[in-house]
Amino acid sequence: MTDLIDGNVLEGVSATTLWTLHNRASEAKRSDGVIRDPWAVTLFDAIDYDYRKFGKPNQSHGLRAVAFDTVTRQYLTEHPQAEVVALAEGLQTSFWRLDRLGVLDEVTWYSIDLPPVMALRRKLLPREDRVVELAQSALDRSWMDQVDGSEGVFITAEGLLMYLDPDDALNLIRDCAARFPGGRMMFDSVPRWFSVRTMQGKLKLSDRYTAPPMPFGMSPDDAVALAGHIPGVRAAHDIAMPRGRGLFTVLASPLWDRVGFLRRGRPSHTLLEFAS
């Protein structure tokens, strides 16, 4: 392909969106892949980047995307005129996957990320009247002024909170709960042992790439306990990992959660319900 877009404009944490794209697109290209994501394949093929430094692709980010899609779809089926806020959206293509399912006809979608990431999205993805692009940090609360939320709001923080200082992550949740009563928020977490490895610089995906620090780690039970610790969070639910192939089928088994240290040591997806 000619006229490839240079992916090296993204650095640090922003570059991790290319890691997740690598995994998601590689799955989408498989006949037995865990996700159907044509736009991920398009982006992957259109970006000039050394994806091999991320090591062998796996199912993890494809399965994470499926988990977020499933819960978002359920909410939008019940709230067809709601607004979706995708914090630190990166090169996610959730909008187009959900649009194929017919749940976005009346939805306004807010895509939020840092200016270099948003510039890359604009070069690669089609313009959509239903998508509002905001080139800013998720921690810049001015995005909240753009969102009405009177018909419902669903906030996604996919692949975000683990890269934040713990206080920043919890304060973001606290402020979302206060600002959008009756809304929902979904995020994913890495376990504490995984967080520690990244902080020590020991999470090497290859001899050429070390994952950036992830200061914020939570167990599934820590995440569910937010309902009792953050004002305005009425309920918190641990969302099961979808089943994948091979080892990922085994890892999705609920039997693992019967063993305490295994439950504490796994990644998790959490859905928060905000009080009305």
TrEMBL record:
One of its GO terms (molecular function) is methyltransferase activity. This is O-Methyltransferase involved in polyketide biosynthesis. The keyword Transferase applies. One of its GO terms (biological process) is methylation. Gene3D superfamilies: Vaccinia Virus protein VP39. It comes from the Bacteria. InterPro entries: Ppm1/Ppm2/Tcmp, SAM-dependent_MTases_sf, TcmP-like. SUPFAM superfamilies: S-adenosyl-L-methionine-dependent methyltransferases. Keywords: Methyltransferase, Transferase. Pfam families: LCM. It comes from Mycolicibacterium rutilum.
